[in-house]
Amino acid sequence: MSAHTAKTELKLIGKLLLEGELHCDTGLHVGAGKGSLEIGGADNPVVKDAFGRPYVPGSTLRGRLRSLLEQSNGLAVPSELVYLSRRKGQEVRIHQSDRPDDEICLLFGRNPGRMDRVSGDIIEGASASPSRLTVYDAPLDPDSITPAMRENLDDELTEVKSENAIDRITSQANPRTLERVPAGARFHVRMTLDVLCEEDKVLLARLAEGLRLLEDDTLGGGGSRGSGRVHFSNLRLRWRGRGYYAAGAAETELLAGADLGAVQSLARGDDFAAKLSE
């Protein structure tokens, strides 16, 4: 539990920079919608950048981490959820509370104002809580798509997975196709964690928890049908104190070539907070 209170003062102490590789253990589908559907193309294409290369949007990765942390901490229940949208058939519910020590709201941000709970009293938030976590779009490493892989792909960088939905009464097949980045592909991930007070130093452990949960869950669409299993490797963690930005002081490398276990052990160490000085 965080030690934040309503009187905690926020002032930048520094930033933690976490970079590394996201590996696709199975095909990955992060959908682009059907606006880019081409004749003969897949029904469900993946999102691509201006050069036609697949990438993982930062919003997708960040949102999945938030969802997994909400679930694992018992916060995906009606009394802890609020409506972002109540449009019929398009309801959006996320966790948000007015508790100053709520680590999920501290990590991902909190909006002020009146919000309807799914169950319980309305939230009357008086102030915003700035998001500490920033997750950037993760570009594909083109070298991870090897010549041998390209020989078996449907497109230069992606594969098309065919699926059938079977009507339980008539047994009629309804085929659909899903474009995926193939297993073996690799993306470069980068995220920053702002430390705005001494109490924020515990949030790296919460972020590491979310990343470890993701490794045993799925990312993107079609997860229950085999897509989206990923893992992280070759992680690098650096600390840039306020002096780095104000006076050009050197950064501190905390980890290099690490896995998530090493990040989590560092974040939970007794001397970790002392390493993050201005």
Describe, in plain words, how this protein is organized in 3D.
The chain is α+β, with helices and mostly antiparallel strands and about 280 residues long. It has one domain. Helix content is about 20%, strand content about 30%. It contains seven helices and 13 strands. Helix 1 packs across helix 4 (about 205-215).
- Percent range for β-strand residues: 25-35%
Helix content: 10-25%
Strand and helix order: EEHEEHEEEEHEEEHEHEHH
Regions with little confidence, pLDDT below 50 for 5+ residues:
none
The end-to-end distance, rounded to whole angstroms, is 24 Å
Sum up the structure in keywords.
278 residues, two-stranded antiparallel ribbon, five-stranded antiparallel beta sheet, 7 helices, alpha+beta
Brief summary of the model shown:
The chain has 278 residues and is of the alpha+beta class.
Task: Give the arrangement of secondary structure elements.
Layout (H helix, E strand, L loop, with lengths): L13 E11 L30 E2 L1 H15 L8 E5 L6 E4 L7 H6 L4 E3 L7 E3 L7 E3 L2 E2 L7 H4 L8 E8 L6 E8 L5 E10 L7 H13 L14 E12 H6 L4 E7 L1 H8 L4 H4 L3
Antiparallel strand pairs: 1-11, 1-12, 2-8, 3-4, 5-6, 7-11, 9-10, 12-13
Helix pairs in contact: 1-4, 4-6
